[in-house]
Amino acid sequence: MLTKSYSFKKIYNTVQDITSPMHWKEIEPLEIEFFRWMNNDYKPKVIVKACYSSDFIYVKFLVYEKKVTVRFLKNGDPVFKDSCVEFFINLFPVEVTNYFNIEFNAIGTIKMGYGIKRERIYLQESDLSSLKIVTSIKEPVKGYHGSEFWELYCAIPINILEKLYNKKFIGGSAIGNFYKCGDETEFKHYGMWNLVNNTKPDFHLPEYFGNFYFME
């Protein structure tokens, strides 16, 4: 099985507006193109762009989904049951096995954990509130939200990741994956960037992570 790779371009200028098209113009896209385990043929197109600075990892999701489910509004809620996008990453794969799962529903509610597979701790509001998140959907909705697509932009402070790793991040190689899901949406679905070759739905399988490269 071919393992995919993606390079995070380094941004040296201060980013005032993470939604600015100029910020993302030179960033290469990737696509969440593998959908598995369901036979309903629901496969929304999802384009992701990611980059980083000395202080933040920036991620943009563009999701071609006319109908969504957004119910959960409190950080830490099970957002994977809603229309959801996810970013998993291990910054130090040579030295540790723990990774972060960073999950957002379409309104920007976050669930974020750290650990290995199901042995995880979950971050509290004091940390989660430091993430910068902007979404095109502003209110809870079930069904049509008024557009052909929805967008989510986030800036993840690197110092939050460093705190739990107890290590300083200086770039280089990492591993991870990007996902799209909706466990309790109209059409249950599980999408991924790097293929998870498992017989049943499970994103917490780091053996199927792709390669990330943080470029200088």
Outline the fold blueprint.
Blueprint: E1 5-10, H1 21-24, E2 29-32, E3 34-35, E4 46-52, E5 56-63, E6 67-70, E7 84-90, E8 99-105, E9 110-116, E10 119-122, H2 125-128, E11 132-135, E12 141-144, E13 150-157, H3 158-165, E14 172-182, E15 189-192, E16 210-214
Explain the overall architecture.
This protein is mostly beta strands. It has a single domain (28-210), classed as Immunoglobulin-like (Sandwich). It is built from three helices and 16 strands. It has helices at 21-24, 125-128, 158-165, and strands spanning 5-10, 29-32, 34-35, 46-52, 56-63, 67-70, 84-90, 99-105, 110-116, 119-122, 132-135, 141-144, 150-157, 172-182, 189-192, 210-214. Strands 1, 2, 3, 4, 5, 7, 8, 9, 10, 11, 13, 14, 15 and 16 form a 14-stranded mixed beta sheet that branches. Strands 6-12 form a two-stranded antiparallel sheet. The chain is globular and about 45 Å long. The mean pLDDT is 96.
Feature tags:
single chain, mainly beta, Immunoglobulin-like, 14-stranded mixed sheet, two-stranded antiparallel ribbon, 3 helices
What is the CATH class name?
Mainly Beta
The multimeric state of the shown protein is single chain
Named CATH topology: Immunoglobulin-like
SSE string, helices as H and strands as E = EHEEEEEEEEEHEEEHEEE
Number of helices: 3
Mean pLDDT: 96
Distance between the termini: 29 Å
Identify the overall geometry: globular
Strand content: 35-45%
Structural class: mainly beta
Q: Biggest sheet, open or closed, and with what strands and sense?
A: 14 strands, mixed
Number of strands: 16
Helix content: under 10%
Query: What is the architecture at the second tier of CATH?
Result: Sandwich
Whole-angstrom Rg:
16 Å
Query: What is the domain tally?
Result: 1
Query: pLDDT below 50 for ≥5 consecutive residues: which ranges?
Result: none
